[in-house]
Design goal:
With 228 residues, the protein is an alpha/beta fold. It has a single domain, classed as Rossmann fold. Helix content is 33%, strand content 20%. It is built from 10 helices and 9 strands. A 9-stranded mixed beta sheet has the order 3-2-1-4-5-7-6-9-8, sandwiched between helices. Strand 8 and strand 9 form a beta hairpin. The longest helix has 13 residues. It is globular and about 45 Å long. The mean pLDDT is 94.
Length: 228
């Protein structure tokens, strides 16, 4: 895939938009284009596989591990040619043998938001992380998720980017990636806004898109068609 708007995700956004907004997808795409060293990817809570499709198309060398007890929507939606480097665990995360899993460079958690599952999952995810791992956390406004955020902070993680429907956490600084986004000539900030967090905010940067972007995603086409 050479461009985001040619991706399976963008071309089928009407399928994915109920569970994953276009801003999330585009930022993941930009991160993968910027960081080519991602080797192992974990996703908990797959649904139709929107974010997975971006991972698989942007860098087909990444080994993907997917956990979800119900994968029918995923299997009915995602083309089989995108799953060649993918290991699927069609079971609850609590039933997965985490000992056989590698350490992950990128993790997307979108699992069961009901306690104690979120904290149990994130504790295991942290145990399978490295100093450069980036964690994309969903269900961020769900009751009880403050426990997860406090755990991450105690473990030395920082919420570097707050998006409209998720958060990006990392132990290592994501400032170089943010600088890359800010100073690029085309792309994200032609149709989104970025604000630096204050001292009393729980995030370093806030990135948000106006409602018109979500209502009509075709408006981003002129900004990203000719990106590198």
């Amino acid at each position: 895939m050479t461009n985001f708007i040619d991706s399976f995700y963008f071309q089928n956004y009407n399928i994915f938009k109920k569970t994953r907004c276009i801003l999330d997808g585009y930022l993941i795409y930009r991160f993968l284009k910027w960081n080519v060293n991602i080797q192992n990817y974990l996703e908990i809570g797959i649904d139709k596989g929107g974010c997975f499709s971006i991972i698989a198309e942007t860098n087909n060398k990444i080994k993907c591990f997917l956990i979800d007890p119900h994968m029918k929507n995923f299997k009915d939606t995602i083309p089989k040619n995108l799953t060649k480097n993918t290991t699927c665990f069609e079971q609850k995360s609590i039933d997965v043998n985490w000992n056989i899993l590698p350490n992950f460079d990128l993790i997307l958690w979108d699992g069961d938001p009901n306690p104690p599952t979120p904290l149990d999952d994130i504790v295991k995810c942290v145990s399978k992380s490295n100093n450069n791992t980036v964690l994309c956390l969903s269900w961020v406004n769900y009751p009880g998720m403050d426990i997860v955020k406090n755990f991450l902070k105690k473990e030395g993680w920082t919420q570097w980017i707050k998006l409209d429907s998720c958060q990006l956490w990392s132990k290592n600084s994501l400032q170089p990636f943010i600088d890359h986004l800010v100073y690029e000539k085309n792309g994200l900030f032609n149709f989104s806004r970025i604000h630096k967090g204050n001292n009393d905010d729980d995030y370093k940067w806030l990135i948000s898109s106006p409602m018109c972007v979500y209502d009509n995603v075709q408006i981003i086409e002129k900004y990203v068609r000719n990106e590198d």
